[in-house]
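Before drawing any conclusions, I looked closely at one protein, both as residues and as discrete backbone shape codes, quoted below without any editing:
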Amino acid sequence: MPLAIFDLDETLIATDSDHEWGEYVCDHGLVNEEVHRARNDAFYEQYKAGELDIYEYLAFSCSVLTRYSMDKLQAYRSDFVEKRIAPKMLEKGRALIDEHKNRGDQVMVITSTIEFVTRPIVDAFGIEILIAPDPEIIDNRYTGNIVGVPSFGEGKVTRLKSWMSENNETLNGSYFYSDSHNDLPLLRLVDNPIAVDPDLTLRAEAEKKQWQIISLRN
């Protein structure tokens, strides 16, 4: 069963859910708006430039989760997904997911955005398997820490290989869809790397390697 692997942000959705969640918590007074928005924007620029320290960023991202009860966080998240993410879910992305499912492929998402944010989005696409940075929970509260290797850059390869070992899967006939040059390590590994509305760096690499380039927006 070939793997059909998708990035999430700016690939299946026409936004970055990580950055958008940062905007949401600022807009709803869950953090110090000025400080949090400035750091959120700075980290996003670092990500786009390929200069992100993922551990520093995840500490920042997870810090919000430590401030509120699980019930409150889940209520905020439901509102966030309904109002900020659902309108950005790409119909061509849904169609592509369905196409792979109809072929009998194993569909999954690998993202560098924390599981707390991405799980309901991936569920809404009808995808069961999600590999994402896992925020630690102790006594039904988030600690602010991440469990295991973050699925970012080379970490996506590490996490995928671990998952494949546990599930007796291979990369034979595999696909990976992504918009970002940060995903080049995994794109270079699969049999069918596909650049989706790619950033300039990824587009240049895709053209050089003669990878398929598609749009899910046009």
